[in-house]
Design a protein that fits this description.
It is built from nine helices and twelve strands. The protein is of the alpha/beta class.
């Protein structure tokens, strides 16, 4: 079967700074891949390249077998039109460290905006979808609240509902809990765990090692722009092959 996401030779540079140095990685449908590693290892840039928020300097991202953002015409790789790229992106939801909610819209309005504007859903359909999703993330009672009246954990759960409203096939989480107070982390991780149980394909960049151990099908360890190793949580956490992985885990788990 074709992987839902496949990265081949992915390179990303910002000027003379080489952030990704030839990444090969595939993700199967319904798989949860958790990416760990020290700050500056390229984890977030990798996720941003997966949905072309950052255009790779070289290499190809395939989504459901189609090259994302570029296409081959007469043996030349050319950029897809913005319309084509946006259509591809609608199937890849992303949740960021910062919640990026519209401050002048209620929780419900934040969730239904894109389905109406991008997917062309009728307002009644979008409202029902929004209510269902807010209930799914445990926030149906906050539907009329503005972001300023919500805790960080509640805002992040609205952001997850907003991403799910586009009916994505893949969800990307970039340090979704790192901006939260420690006591609010659990409520967001619970939503992510529920999504995994429901079979959502997920790529997750996180420092939450407990989540990686419990939920990941595969853990990927990155350092200095490379994937140093990958395997099941048991392999990575109990018997890592690379000394650098062992060192990282020892430092993280001693904090």
């Amino acid at each position: 079967m074709t992987p839902i996401i496949e990265l081949r030779g992915l390179i990303k540079s910002f000027g003379v700074t080489h952030v990704l140095k030839g990444i090969d990685l595939s993700v199967e449908k319904s798989e949860v891949v958790v990416i760990i590693g020290p700050s500056g290892s390229g984890k977030s840039t990798l996720l941003r390249c997966v949905n072309f928020l950052e255009q790779p300097s070289d290499g190809i991202v395939y989504f459901n077998g189609d090259s994302l953002g570029i296409q081959k015409i007469n043996d030349r790789w050319l950029k897809r039109s913005e319309k084509e790229l946006n259509l591809q992106r609608t199937k890849i939801g992303m949740v960021f460290q910062q919640f990026n909610l519209f401050p002048h819209m209620t929780a419900l309005q934040n969730v239904i905006e894109a389905p109406i504007q991008v997917l062309g859903l009728k307002k009644d359909e979008a409202l029902q979808l929004g209510l269902d999703l807010l209930e799914r993330v445990g926030l149906s009672d906050k539907k009329d609240f503005y972001p300023r009246a919500l805790s960080g954990g509640q805002q992040q759960r609205v952001a997850i509902a907003r991403a799910l409203a586009m009916k994505p096939e893949v969800m990307l989480f970039d340090e979704a809990t790192s901006a939260l107070d420690p006591e609010l982390v659990g409520e967001v991780l619970k939503v992510m765990k529920d999504l995994a149980k429901e079979g959502m394909t997920m790529m997750v960049v996180t420092h939450e090692m407990g989540f990686a151990k419990e939920v990941a099908d595969r853990v990927v360890f990155m350092d200095q722009g490379y994937i140093l190793e990958q395997g099941t949580p048991e392999q990575i956490f109990k018997n890592p092959k690379e000394a650098r992985t062992s060192e990282f885990l020892r430092l993280v788990e001693s904090v």
